[in-house]
Amino acid sequence: MLNHTTLIIIITVIVSLLAWQNKTLFNRLIFYPPAVNNGQWDRFVTHGFIHADSMHLLFNMFTLYFFGRAIEGLYQSFLFGYGFVVFYVLAIIIAMIPSYIKNKNNASYLSLGASGGVSAVLFAFILLAPWEKIYLFAVVPIPAILFAVAYVAYSIYADKRGGSNINHMAHLWGGAFGIVATIILEPQVLPHFLNALLSPSL
Asked: Which chain regions cross the lipid bilayer (predicted)?
């Protein structure tokens, strides 16, 4: 049986490929505030299953594959075994809410991609293993906790600077959701994180 991480990746790849071949489908799934205002609330979910191009898709699914499999078991005891799926989908939704509020009346605003959900997974992993090595660009090793600090700092800077097609706000809120939701579901994760943070050699 496929684990839920792999299943999410398969669905995301298929939907992205179909959307690239069908502009009408692509436009129906992308996050577009005027359409949401008209009742198409499903776009809060569907935008997370399409991507701008192959590199966008590859980066998100590569990250999800490694970190999703590492933490998926933590959520399996919730919601009849579907806790990880619900966690991931909720992360996609909640990560988009601040962007929606900010751009509710912006007819030129569009957003897509799984980054909100992927950020939630990544930051949940960091809670479990703050000193585990994360390979930046799949090459440069960096402790997970240092990566998290740099990631948050850069996302805040880039969001304030603007001028980018990347939704840095969704990255931040997705990561925040991953941390908060994981602590709520498994409160012992917080003392585990603090102990691990203070004992990098263990």
From this structure: 6-23, 44-67, 79-97, 109-128, 134-157, 169-190
Question: Which run of H or of E encompasses 2?
Answer: none
- The Cα 116–Cα 100 span in angstroms is 13
Residue 79 parent element (H or E): none
pTM (predicted TM-score):
0.90
Residue 189 to residue 40: CA distance in whole angstroms: 36
Which of 79, 7, 84 shows the shortest CA–CA distance to 49?
7
Q: What does residue 38 show for φ and ψ, rounded to 5 degrees? A: -90, 10
Of the candidates 184, 89, 62, the one whose C-alpha atom is nearest the C-alpha of residue 127 is 184
Residue 202 has pLDDT above 60, yes or no: no
Measured distance CA(16)–CA(55) in Å, rounded: 12
pLDDT in tens, 95-124: 999 999 999 999 999 999 998 999 999 999
